[in-house]
From TrEMBL:
<feature type="region of interest" description="Disordered">
    <location>
        <begin position="1"/>
        <end position="22"/>
    </location>
</feature>
<protein>
    <submittedName>
        <fullName>Photosystem II stability/assembly factor-like uncharacterized protein</fullName>
    </submittedName>
</protein>
<dbReference type="InterPro" id="IPR015943">
    <property type="entry name" value="WD40/YVTN_repeat-like_dom_sf"/>
</dbReference>
Amino acid sequence: METTRGQGDPAPLLGPPGWQDTTRGTDVRLRCLSAVDRRTVWVAGADGVVLRTQDGGDSWQSVGPPDGRALQFRSIKAFDAHHAVVLSFGAGDAARILSTDDAGEHWSEAFRNHDPAAFYNCMTFGDDSHGLAVADPVDGRFRILRSTDSGRSWHEVDPAGLPAALAGEVAFAASGTCLIGRAGLHWLATGSAARARVFRSDDGGRTWSAADTPVRSAPDAGIFALAFRDAAIGVAVGGDYRDQSRGGRLTATTADGGITWRTVAGNAPNGYRSGATWTGHEFVVVGPGGSDYSVDDGAGWTRFDDRGLDTVSVAQDGSCWAAGEHGRVALLSHRIPAAR
């Protein structure tokens, strides 16, 4: 038996969370996901694959661009059952943003990167109109694109509004959640430099400030995902992509909107985590080594699944979905504990 969690007052939790696998539509690794509601979910990943369900995962339709097999999707935003935007990561013209208004029957190219020095990683939307996309530093600063028309067109933000990048600093394109936004606020996670940092913007991505975090940073290591409960309380998770079982300083929390970050003193996810979200009840983080949840704003964590997932997303109705390797897509549920 499962609870139903929608808008308004959330249903009480009847036990710890668990993943309920849905029918899988492909064996391709799915690296980004956007849930519209309990029935409508879009996922995307390697080899230009985009899948959509309208029956809660009982069946999936392949709706990716017919000529997109060379594209590697890392971010997706679904506005409804028909309109979605995807970003393919990489340098040069491998980085593109595509948009569909007819459920994937046709795709239009909203942006194509022509700068070989720009490597695009993530895309997010703070609301249904305003989106941002980020590329690793070019000429010493991260490059930000901005959309005000639901992803149909994109324009570069003046780089003077961003702090200088550290030597070697990058963003990670693991799950589409290194860049997140909500109602004008945006946060960007970084790593691979001397310090893992979180950039914050409170004006829709025009200007940014940067804060150091205690998360361990090294080549291929740092913060891979961010999630916020509200404008103040958030978590940052990551690890080392090349050494995914390595623990130690992989998680940090903030209570002031990302201005300052502190180490998690209690139990923390042990190993690399690539995706994070706030479900309305708890923070949930996922990675190839398992899933964890926290009901105390990130102070303590409990592992609840050992199978691999890469990305996680919550819909407006409160349903929480995740996806990962071998085409796995799963729905979060809370079950009544067994009688003692």
